[in-house]
Amino acid sequence: MKLNKFWLIPAVLLVAGGIAFAATRSAPPADLDYDLSHLSENGLYQVTLVPGIDPVPVGKMHAWLVDVVDANGETVDAEIVMDGGMTQHGHGLPTVPIVTGKDHEGRHIVGGMRFNMPGWWVLTVEVDGEAGTDTATFNLAL
Ligand SMILES: [Cu+2]
Questions:
Q1: Which residues neighbour ligand 1 (ion) by CB within 5 Å?
Q2: pLDDT (tens digit per residue) in 79-101
Q3: 122 Cα to the center of ligand 1, angstroms
Q4: How far is the CA of 114 from the centre of ligand 1 (A)?
Q5: Residue 7 C-alpha to ligand 1 middle, in angstroms?
Q6: pLDDT digits over 96-120, tens only?
Q7: Does some domain include residue 5?
Q8: Contacts of 117-120 spanning 24+ positions with Cβ under 8 A
Q9: Is 32 contained in some domain?
Q10: pLDDT the model gives residue 18
């Protein structure tokens, strides 16, 4: 009977530690910028994202619109690659999004977007245009 008590202490510590660990993993940084319109890293392009479904769903395949303009606000002819992942979980999107065309406003249509779990996602848009290659980064809370 006395032995059981000794086993209880490490068991309780293990559970408490597990809960604390899960809490730090699931809580995103408090000061995240969730704006879906950002200047690319080197300031070459202004990139604006519009999710095809609002609010953005978890588990459902859908498309996003990506608007890319230059420093003067003019739409640029550019190739884009959109990607995403969860920094805190060390995994990417379960899909490989692809550009399927453009809408009537010249925005890139990116199909094959699917988020397989709720939480903090980081989206990147790599732009390859006349001004050069640059990347814009976005935060998304699902
Ligand atoms: Cu995850």
A1: 86, 89, 117
A2: 999 999 999 999 999 999 999 99
A3: 11
A4: 12
A5: 33
A6: 999 999 999 999 999 999 999 999 9
A7: no
A8: 117/58, 117/86, 117/89, 117/142, 118/58, 118/142, 119/26, 119/28, 119/86, 119/88, 119/89, 120/28, 120/32, 120/86, 120/87, 120/88
A9: no
A10: 57
Q: Report how many domains make up the chain.
A: 1
Is 80 exceeded by the pLDDT of residue 16?
A: no
Residue 121, domain extent: 37-141
51: domain CATH number is 2.60.40.3340
Say if residues 141 and 120 touch (Cβ distance below 8 Å): yes
Rounded Cα gap, residues 80 and 96, in angstroms: 13
In a domain, 11, yes or no: no
> Quick check: is 130 in a domain?
yes
> In this predicted structure, what is the pLDDT of residue 13?
56
Please tell me the predicted confidence (pLDDT) of residue 27. Answer: 86
- Centre of ligand 1 to C-alpha 55, Å, is 19
CA of 125 to the centre of ligand 1 (A): 19
